[in-house]
């Protein structure tokens, strides 16, 4: 897994795709909407020379795949802490961008509210910007979740960085819906909790799934929020889009011998040690 990635490489690639049309847009955005993101990308390009002198010994570069609600963010974040690499969550980068009151943010909010994917050009510009910031601050390695979600994005990612391993979290669909509907986020500390008590009987093709609620500490009880895209209708649309757009991404990595499937079938206390064992990662004291 040892290899070197230089900040120069990451910076150079930042520029290469800034104007490249990667795919169909889910919404026809007026080209002026791209300007804030593209301007930032171009500004970042000017940092290339400074970044070029920084050579960062890289650590692991992993991707987490999985349907909405499977726990990608939770497990990717725990693993990143355990392995001391940054966790890059595409959904968080998007939500960060949405806090700005720009026309682009409003258009992106409208798409997200319908459960749609955002245009590749915008998503990729945000990700490159994040990689660029990481390179400038000597970050080594990452665990990425929420990207790629299409094979076009997977190919674009291959142009930027070398992915070592793709962890594909799997969970039956009825449970995914329950988990999304039970998800709560503390607007104060940002912690993610789940109020759903899931106990789904074994069926012909799926094992029983038992997941107790993951309740917030009392201090967060009054500040819990529900993501606007966690309504049943929107969750089902996100699952439909996942099946159509993101399933092929699994095949993309399977064909390249990078995919490791992992069945989630319980709460964090059961799943976390199993995941560490499956990935051959030593637990450095994180309590399940
Ligand atoms: N790689 C991506 N490509 C396109 N849109 C994305 C991508 N990642 C995130 N998004 C947008 O952000 C939303 C929230 O993403 P995320 O928090 O990862 O949620 P989930 O995995 O539960 O759908 C997505 O529904 C989509 O609109």
UniProtKB/TrEMBL annotation:
Molecular functions per Gene Ontology: AMP kinase activity; ATP binding
Domain of life: Eukaryota
Gene Ontology CC terms, in alphabetical order: cytoplasm; mitochondrion
Coiled coil: none
Keywords for the protein's UniProt record, in alphabetical order: Kinase, Nucleotide-binding, Transferase
Family matches, as CDD domains: ADK
InterPro entries, per database record: Adenyl_kin_sub (IPR006259), Adenylat/UMP-CMP_kin (IPR000850), Adenylat_kinase_CS (IPR033690), P-loop_NTPase (IPR027417)
Catalysed conversion reaction: AMP + ATP = 2 ADP
EC number: 2.7.4.3
SUPFAM superfamilies: P-loop containing nucleoside triphosphate hydrolases
Enzyme class, UniProt record, top EC level: transferase
PANTHER family, sorted: NUCLEOTIDE KINASE
Family named by the database record: Belongs to the adenylate kinase family.
Protein name, per record: adenylate kinase
Record organism: Selaginella moellendorffii (Spikemoss)
Lineage start: Eukaryota, Viridiplantae, Streptophyta, Embryophyta, Tracheophyta
């Amino acid at each position: 897994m040892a290899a070197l990635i230089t900040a120069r490489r990451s910076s150079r690639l930042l520029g290469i795709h800034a104007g490249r049309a990667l795919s169909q847009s889910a919404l026809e955005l007026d080209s002026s909407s791209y300007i804030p993101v593209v301007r930032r990308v171009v500004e970042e390009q000017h940092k290339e020379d400074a970044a070029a002198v920084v050579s960062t010994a890289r650590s692991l570069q992993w991707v987490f795949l999985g349907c909405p609600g499977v726990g990608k963010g939770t497990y990717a974040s725990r693993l990143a802490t355990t392995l001391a690499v940054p966790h890059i969550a595409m959904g968080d980068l998007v939500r960060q961008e949405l806090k700005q009151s720009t026309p682009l943010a409003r258009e992106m909010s409208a798409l997200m509210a319908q459960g749609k994917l955002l245009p590749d050009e915008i998503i990729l510009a945000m990700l490159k910007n994040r990689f660029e910031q990481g390179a400038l601050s000597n970050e080594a390695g990452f665990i990425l979740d929420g990207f790629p979600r299409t094979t076009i994005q997977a190919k674009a990612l291959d142009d930027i960085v070398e992915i070592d391993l793709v962890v594909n979290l799997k969970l039956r669909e009825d449970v995914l819906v329950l988990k999304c509907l039970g998800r709560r986020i503390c607007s104060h500390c940002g912690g993610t909790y789940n109020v759903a008590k899931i106990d789904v009987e074994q069926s012909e093709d799926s094992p029983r799934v038992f997941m107790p609620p993951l309740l917030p500490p009392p201090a967060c009880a009054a500040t819990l929020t529900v993501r606007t895209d966690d309504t049943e209708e929107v969750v089902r649309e996100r699952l439909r889009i996942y099946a159509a757009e993101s399933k092929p991404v699994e095949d993309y990595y399977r064909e390249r011998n990078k995919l490791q499937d992992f069945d989630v079938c319980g709460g964090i206390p059961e799943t976390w040690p199993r995941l560490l064992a499956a990935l051959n990662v030593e637990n450095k004291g994180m309590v399940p």
